[in-house]
Structure to design on (499 residues):
């Protein structure tokens, strides 16, 4: 399922355990809708960015189709969070 | 004065709409956009002249050779070098520095010698020297950066000694835009008979450079940061020094004769003269053609004008950033001490979040460490967001950037 929505997962430069996720352009709106519906808590909504929390992790959701997941143990944890959010 | 409207008309990419907004490209320290003249020169080369260079007797090979060699001449004129013998084409600044580090490091540096670099350096002027010091056992000395982001010249003078063989410094910081006084540093290096290498990645594209006047021995820079294509860069080396150096890479074109003895397994090789001694294998000919066109484009504008335009933009940006309540700008406030780079952080956001939000407004900036982790550590900053300007940027774009930051501050 990740292949359907995710184009790339990368560690952010200079940040120890933060990851950026690039959503596939063609399905980004659908993906963002699913994510917003599945996160534990939405903390802030603005035109360009939403702040959310899931499994205790801070998540940033950008309308351009990018996400940041902060302080994840590793890429596997990022993937498992994404599996949940995109289901 | 530069004719901004005419210049902007030469850059097709500037018409793009990104994320619903007209593109503002403020990531020029990473790479610059390309004018149509450069794009056309590359296309033209492949359409009409493509061939391999040197030792070809047919017409196309002669044309390609002529274009390739005259690109060396253009680069030489641009930085005040004596001629093509002093201009080695490489991939980029990184390869230029590696060339010097490996060639001199392998053959001339020994335990007991010292190489002086700085805490302001891009990783490309740290890692090659570190690798070579591990291999050859010489010592690295690292010059301090002061809290205002300027280089500590007293510390440099202390660290340069009779043991110093090479002083390798950045001309302009890619994080803070600070301009270092390389002429004075060259004097300090030469007093102890050390060589000086200047990383010109962020200076050559933005200001007039005269290697004779600066009295430097090596200068490294990248074509892609000065309107040229990726994959082509320049190492300037003083004629007599290049002439005494061993090659970095071996292969075709960098030799004048190769004899091998099948009985003994011995090869007898005579190296070519510089610059070809340092250009092994088929070079990036189309890249060189593109770089030459980029240089002509910049020369037509005039590097003094490029510098004045960027100073104006930085001064304007720094002034307008004072309107922001939660944004911290790093480096000297005096626009006279810096070129077109402004690094900052918005309170409550990390540098990547800020960059991604600016992206939503169609404004492209870079975030992270900018390959300069020691400088961030010196200034006790985790990462920064960086806006960097070039000849096609305008005050109106700075206004959009400031307005976007005002909205972003409200979210932070
Ligand atoms: C100061 C400085 N030195 C070296 C480099 C490396 O340039 P390149 O990646 O073109 O080799 C850069 C690139 O950002 C730079 O800013």
């Amino acid at each position: 399922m990740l292949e359907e929505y995710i184009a790339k997962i990368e560690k952010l430069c200079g940040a120890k355990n933060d990851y950026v996720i690039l959503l596939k352009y063609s399905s980004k709106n659908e993906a963002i809708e699913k994510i917003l519906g599945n996160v534990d808590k939405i903390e802030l909504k603005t035109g360009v960015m939403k702040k959310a929390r899931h499994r205790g992790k801070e998540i940033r959701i950008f309308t351009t189709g990018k996400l940041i997941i902060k302080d994840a143990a590793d890429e596997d944890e990022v993937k498992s969070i994404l599996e949940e959010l995109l289901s | 004065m530069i004719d901004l409207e005419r210049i902007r008309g030469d850059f097709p990419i500037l018409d793009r709409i990104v994320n619903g907004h007209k593109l503002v490209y403020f990531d020029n320290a990473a790479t610059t956009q390309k004018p149509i003249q450069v794009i056309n020169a590359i296309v033209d080369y492949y359409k009409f002249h493509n061939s391999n260079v040197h030792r070809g007797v047919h017409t196309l090979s002669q044309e390609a050779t002529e274009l390739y060699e005259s690109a060396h001449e253009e680069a030489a004129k641009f930085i005040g070098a004596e001629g093509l013998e002093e201009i080695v084409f490489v991939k980029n600044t990184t390869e230029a520095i590696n060339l010097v580090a490996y060639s001199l490091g392998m053959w001339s540096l020994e335990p007991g010698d010292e190489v002086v670099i700085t805490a302001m350096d891009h990783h490309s002027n740290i890692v090659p020297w570190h690798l070579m010091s591990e291999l050859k056992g010489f010592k690295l000395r690292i010059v301090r950066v002061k809290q205002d982001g300027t280089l500590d010249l007293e510390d440099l003078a202390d660290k340069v000694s009779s043991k110093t063989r090479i002083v390798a410094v950045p001309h302009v910081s890619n994080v803070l835009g600070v301009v270092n006084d390389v002429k004075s540093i060259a004097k300090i290096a030469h007093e102890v008979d050390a060589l000086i290498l200047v990383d010109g990645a962020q200076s050559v594209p933005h200001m007039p450079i005269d290697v004779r006047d600066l009295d430097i021995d090596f200068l490294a820079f990248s074509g892609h940061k000065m309107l040229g294509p990726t994959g082509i860069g320049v190492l300037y080396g003083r004629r007599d020094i290049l002439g005494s150096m061993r090659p970095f890479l071996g292969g075709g074109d960098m030799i004048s004769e190769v004899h091998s003895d099948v009985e003994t397994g011995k090869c007898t090789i005579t190296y070519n003269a510089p610059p070809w001694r340092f250009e092994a294998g088929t070079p990036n000919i189309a890249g060189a053609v593109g770089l030459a066109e980029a240089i002509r484009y910049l020369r037509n504008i005039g590097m003094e004008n490029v510098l004045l335009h960027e100073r104006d933009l930085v001064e304007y940006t720094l002034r307008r950033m004072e309107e922001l309540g939660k944004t911290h700008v790093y480096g000297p406030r005096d626009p006279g001490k810096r070129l077109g780079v402004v690094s900052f952080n918005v309170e409550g956001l990390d540098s990547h979040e800020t960059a991604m939000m600016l992206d939503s407004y169609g404004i492209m900036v870079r975030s992270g460490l900018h390959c300069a982790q020691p400088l961030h550590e010196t200034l006790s900053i985790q990462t920064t967001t960086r806006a960097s300007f070039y000849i096609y940027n305008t005050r109106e774009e700075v206004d959009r950037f400031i307005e976007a930051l005002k909205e972003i501050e409200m979210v932070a």
Summary: Residues 2-85 of chain A form a domain with the TATA-Binding Protein fold (CATH 3.30.310). The mean pLDDT of chain A is 93. The pocket of pyridoxal-5'-phosphate is lined by residues B 29-30, 92-94, 122, 124, 170, 174, 199, 201-202, 222 (CB under 6 Å). Strands of chain A lie at 6-11, 19-23, 41-45, 49-54, 57-62, 66-69.
